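INTERNAL AUDIT FORM
Audit reference: QA-55
Scope: verify that the stored structure record matches its stored sequence.
Auditor: D.O.
Record contents follow.
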Amino acid sequence: MRVKKGILVFAVATAILWGTAAQDEPFKVGIVDIDQAISSTEEGKAAREEFARKQREAEATLQPMMERYKALEEELKAKKFVLSDEALFQKQLDIAEVRNQIQNKMKELEGQLQVDQKRLEGPLTAKLVMIIEDIGKSNGFTMILRRGAPGLLYTREALDITDLVIEKYNAKS
């Protein structure tokens, strides 16, 4: 899947290069690290703190279940030689049930955390994209790529316009 995305990015870049080579305009590329931009704004810092708080709450929700699981395992290890086969089987079932509860709760919490992250960072990302588009148009960029995008293996630091994006975002806020 990543290879296909990389090939697609390469094909688009090649098409743009070829298209702009036919024109007299210079080819100008910019690179933006959106994660850094989000982390560098006050709203982004607040969103990341809120997300970290939600992660801590999720971990606190799981903690009693994890402790119960460990206690059941230790009890089984301590008593496995003195328990009857039926009692031993029941303890193993109890452990499996708690393990399944933990796994289900983890999946539920991971899904909720993904939703929370998108809810918190989505509006910031949308604002940043608008600012990036404004910068691209006003400064004559042919294209602006996202740092970490598939197919983008190396960029010179001189192409990075993240600081300019942060500056414009903070000016608008």
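Auditor finding: record pair retrieved intact. Helices lie at 2-21, 34-40, 42-79, 85-138, 162-172.
Action required: none
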